[in-house]
Protein: Phosphate acyltransferase
Amino acid sequence: MRIAIDAMGGDHAPHAQVRSALAAAADWPDTQLILVGNQEVLSPLLGTEPPANISIVHADEVIGSDDEPVRAVRRKTNSSMVVAGRMVKEGNADAMISAGNTGALMAVGLLVVGRLPGIDRPGLAPMFPTLDNVGVLALDMGANMDAKPEHLVQYAMMGSIYREKVHGLRNPSVGLLNVGTEAAKGNELTKEAFDLLQQAPIHFVGNIEARDVLEHKCDVIVCDGFSGNIMLKSIEGAASAIFKLLKEELMSSWSSKLAAAVMKPGFRKVKKRMDYNEYNGAPLLGVNGLVVKGHGSSDENAMKTAIRHTRAAIDNGLITALAEEFSRKE
Structure:
């Protein structure tokens, strides 16, 4: 399999991308890793004898975090992100990964790679950690700020296929993000979507409140991108604040420092279970190729996690399964 990596996108690019590729190349020699970016910058980072399964495709432009997404994709046609997307479109790569500008990656998915037939709007689908370590797939987390009820149904179906194919879950459960669990709760979007989801060929378990997401009330949770992105940022912010508070309290006195030393292994386990690095790599479901978004602050370990998840999606024929499902609805 061939995975194109936008080596210039992200807060820690290109070092995190190169180091993760080197580590992944050693662990998965059957995977061809293609670093897309400025060859003069990337070549020295690979060393004098890079692994045989790592190559470079030169791209001398970069889409920055402040660039307007659509304009950047149309004007910077030789940027690392656009070139990687074009490789997927033309069949020169089985997937692409980028930790760069999220809006620009959405534009690459739509304008360069293209939508799958039968899909109205692709959705960004990251995994959330859950207390039982199973995780929940959430979409849409920001690809589209607005959505119609039928879009949420498509998200539910795509999410179900993803969890079945990539994670091996049989008949995954699907929930609808809402302000209450009762069927009549919510705004017009969620009320209409609730009725449609009940009729869809999925295992729909009803409304799920945001406070229950990490409790693993369902395997897939669907919502519009505006609500989903707020939920994502709220959970990340709350987790970060809690760890900061714990650190402050545990360092506040000699007795608490001694207690912290005893509890340190346990705290490390908790942090690892809730660390986004362990779940990095959100596919843009609904485009006609595997496009994966890494967190903007992805380090070497997070990028390697994204590569691992991308390999699993390729191995299990995710895009083919999605195409077959939605072609039947055309």
The chain has a mean pLDDT of 92.
